[in-house]
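name: query_chain
kind: protein
chains: 1
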Amino acid sequence: MADALVLIDGNNFYASCEQALDPALLGKPVVVLSNNDGCVVSRSAEARHLGIPMGAPAFQLRNLLQRQAVVVRSSNYALYGDMSQRLMSSLELWLAGLEVYSIDEAFGRLPRPRHGDLQGWGRELRARIHRDLGLPIAIGIAPSKVLAKLANRIAKGEVEHAGVFDLGSSQDPANWLAGVAIEDVWGIGRKLSRWCRLRGVATALQLRDMPSGELKAKAGVVGLRLQQELRGISCLPLEEGPSAKRETCVSRSFSQPIEAEAPLREAVASYVVRAAEQLRRQRQRAGRLTVFARTSPFSSGFYSNAASLALPVASNDTGVLLAAALQLVPALYRPHKRFQKAGVLLQELQPDSQLQHHLLVPLPAEQQQRRTALMQCVDQLNRRYGSGTVRWAACGLKPTWIMRRDHLSRAATTRLSDVPTVWAL
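structure:
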């Protein structure tokens, strides 16, 4: 029997991570806010039942949150990233192949047993993840990725399925496809869904059964693959290894506008340091660097600018990237402009296993090895003792522009000082 494809999705992931690390929040409405405590980006099930909308600005909800005793948390990316790694590591033990799709989603491959039903397997996995990590998950099982996405949606929406639904063992899958709107089919964008609606195709079932030639004329081979996936024929392979990135970007909005050049340099330097760390984790080097900055688009006199520089020798060395980026800041800075956001974009990425030297910029092997060892040492210290343990002076000591996170929880899984203490009497 053909293998089944599985989609595992963490429910309300950010809010669930907060509840897993603080049992006092279980059963209470919890919302997690975006950068600078701006908008609601995650809601617990209890918060959703109160009607708190996703993406709404926090300042507009202040009275409602207080009146309903909603617990508010700032985004704790260190916690969410670590919990995601733990989740994916646990899933690897249960699946024959795993594709990490996002921070809280993963596709997997699983041999289907003779009796054909994987509901019991899904319930056992769901219980184990909740026991080990405290995270609720939904599991969709089907013959293809697109159907697994739909099965996952059904698992979340239908209470009787208890978070697990095996569409591949369903006696009549057409019944379920008829209840899925065309806009909710994975891979259908706004334009294609409108085109389908104009032709009377309003559900996943109607898309599956429409003439293939008509769909190909509009969406090409991509549309045909999507239709085949809806018919249970797997066309989208499992990508078990992450594809190499073409660009790496780090940008943030400031907690308060920047008007002087010195704090703008500090912000750019901080983003370069983060981007360089990502490059080394990705085992890549950058051949070009772009720095950009802008004011608020909602204020008068909007200003936005960017400057780029090609590196003579591709690098992931923080010192090299800092030197290149900081010389671009004067070209971006304008007096009397209130900068709201800045960032750095690393381009022309290449594997760190290969390095094209420059005839006029000598880089002795000994020097390269020493710098590589230094970067590894800095990364190890910051991973072990917490981000920012070893800082670059260009980033400043107490920046006033740093992202506002007034409701930040503890990083109990990544910082030793934040590990909860239990007192036994």
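note: The first strand starts at residue 4 and ends at 10.
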